[in-house]
Amino acid sequence: MTHNALQQSDDTYVVLGKLTSPHGVKGWLKVYAYTSPIDSIFDYSEWWVRQGEKLQPLTVIQGRRQGKGLVVQLEGIDNRDAAEALAQADIVMPKSELPELADEEYYWHELEGLHVYTRSGECLGQVSYLFETGANDVMVVRGSQDAIDKRERLLPYLPGDVIIKVDLEAQRMEVDWDPEF
Q1: What is the pLDDT along the chain (181 residues), one digit of tens a residue?
Q2: Of the residues 53, 121, 146, 174, which has the maximum number of CB atoms within 10 A of its CB?
Q3: Cβ–Cβ < 8 Å for 6, 97
Q4: Which of 158, 155, 167 is nearest to 110 (CA)?
């Protein structure tokens, strides 16, 4: 199972979402979450908010679904101007603070960059990114320098079926996949 809680930002932090724009006049903000499900971003009571080089911790007072999206009230942000000042800021978390996953579970940022090999040892390239389709997660594998070609392939993330082995230490993944497909 993968958890798309995060998109890679740098070596220390992962991006959980983004504060997009003010919501109302009392300091609430609209939130775009990369977590799955989206409202699991509220499992974290303190958010690290990053704007350029500036990083500040903000306490979540309350958050909720609003239509198809999310809205949040953050401590100390109590008017529209204060909310406007945070528009487009990233919500990040130190990788060291992410919850531990069970064996054979990975965060998407851990899989991105892995070299993908078939059972017969042919290199298909590297995992560029993953996305959800509803049925299952899909990996985008782009041909790399040591790959058999420069093609981009979409592989379903199906452990035990397509995904045979993930070795984070070796930065390698083995798949049961026909290179012609």
Answers
A1: 444 444 444 568 888 999 999 999 999 999 999 887 888 899 999 999 999 889 999 999 999 999 989 999 999 999 999 999 999 999 998 888 888 878 888 888 889 999 999 999 999 999 999 888 878 889 999 999 999 999 999 999 999 999 999 999 999 999 999 998 8
A2: 174
A3: no
A4: 167
